[in-house]
Amino acid sequence: MNNSDTLETQCQPCQGGMNALSQDQIKSYMQTINPAWQYLPEAVSIKRSFNFKNFSKTMFFVNAVAAMADQQGHHPDVEFGYNYCRVRLTTHEAKGLTTNDFICAKKVDGLV
């Protein structure tokens, strides 16, 4: 199974012992998601900003992200305002990025 196939699956529960991805693995996974996602090495996270026409559309997106995150059991940091939303993903338990972060990035993109 390659990285692209992995991202079509569901998040795996973090039950201790989940290892963070290596820099090479992160680089490989970054090539499989939308290029609008940014890797933030200092925060060991990935982030993407979204813009919307108005507050209503922003809130619809935020609520869809929340529902998807609950279903996946993997929750991003979300910041939003009138016509924007920023989504940041990391796996706190692993103290870095895991496959779950890239799975959720793909699923967030599918909500747009």
From TrEMBL:
It comes from the Bacteria. Pfam families: Pterin_4a. One of its GO terms (biological process) is tetrahydrobiopterin biosynthetic process. InterPro entries: PCD_sf, Pterin_deHydtase. It catalyses: (4aS,6R)-4a-hydroxy-L-erythro-5,6,7,8-tetrahydrobiopterin = (6R)-L-erythro-6,7-dihydrobiopterin + H2O. It is an enzyme of class 4 (lyase). Gene3D superfamilies: Transcriptional coactivator/pterin dehydratase (3.30.1360.20). GO terms for molecular function: 4-alpha-hydroxytetrahydrobiopterin dehydratase activity. CDD domains: PCD_DCoH_subfamily_a. Its EC number is 4.2.1.96. Belongs to the pterin-4-alpha-carbinolamine dehydratase family. PANTHER family: PTERIN-4-ALPHA-CARBINOLAMINE DEHYDRATASE. This is Putative pterin-4-alpha-carbinolamine dehydratase.
